[in-house]
Amino acid sequence: MAHNHDHDGHDHTPADFSRAFAIGTALNLAFVLVEGGYGFMANSLALMADAGHNLSDVMTLLLAWGGMALARRGATPRHTYGFKKGTILVSLGSALFLYAAIGVILWEAVGRLRAPAEVNSMAITVVAAIGVVINTGTALLFISGRKNDLNIKGAFLHMAADAAVSAGVVAAGFAIMATGWNWLDPLISMAIALVILIAGWGLLKDSLHLTMAGVPDHIEAEAVLDYLTGLPGVQCVHDLHIWAASTTETVLTAHLIMPKGGGDDFLHQTAEHLRHDFKIHHTTIQVEREDLNGICHINSRDHGCCWPKQATAPPNAIIPIPPSNTGESP
Fold it and tell me: With CB atoms 3.0 to 4.6 Å apart as the test, which of 34, 56, 78, 194 could cross-link to 97 if both were Cys?
């Protein structure tokens, strides 16, 4: 059996965005207080809705910051993978915060549409314009990590959506100044809710998928399966599982039935190929000489636990040559 946890110089500790979280949290908390206060004085639901949305983003930033800190903690006897899973739970929490904000905004907007209230359009325009600057700047703090970490992606999406929302509020302010139509304020609030709905769907879907131990989107399970079943000496593969240990790390376990066995070189080269080509960081492979339970005779991928050997290995695959003896890596 081989275990590969990238103790070969590759560091998969999440990038440290502590400074970005500290700056983003401070800026947005200050802006929430300003926007909420002016929204109340200007009697603007759009400003207060945006302030509430920004407050949920402050909570999201704090949760994401905490999730990142947990991911950097080491393993313990009770938590052998450490606390990396917390980053996935935080990304799910971020998505749920977004959808909670939608409910509050829509509830208030419907009431305002029935009885439009007079608003201070100039205050709406100026404060929302400040929000565009602050939210855009905060989003840029996380732009470098959005493709590699779902947790950071959640923070980026929240702030980018807020920038778009604030821009919409600015437009509403100008429109109310030009027309005097106070009902535009709750209407823009409903548009804000729609933007949040669209922006948060991908985050909610991805975080739920990872929470349910789904295969991360950047990995093609069939390609991994084809590689393993195409290795020389492999009769079939069963109990193949691929899931996320965190928003940045992936785990694979598999049983390979190999009548002639597989030595240390075979095991380590296979793990290295999975790391290099499939971005799978933690690999555990168990080699079995005999098919004691007749798994290989199932001969069906639909069975869910067993896949027979393919005719050929996939193109450009690194094909380790198994020695005649069975080996076991440390």
Answer: 56
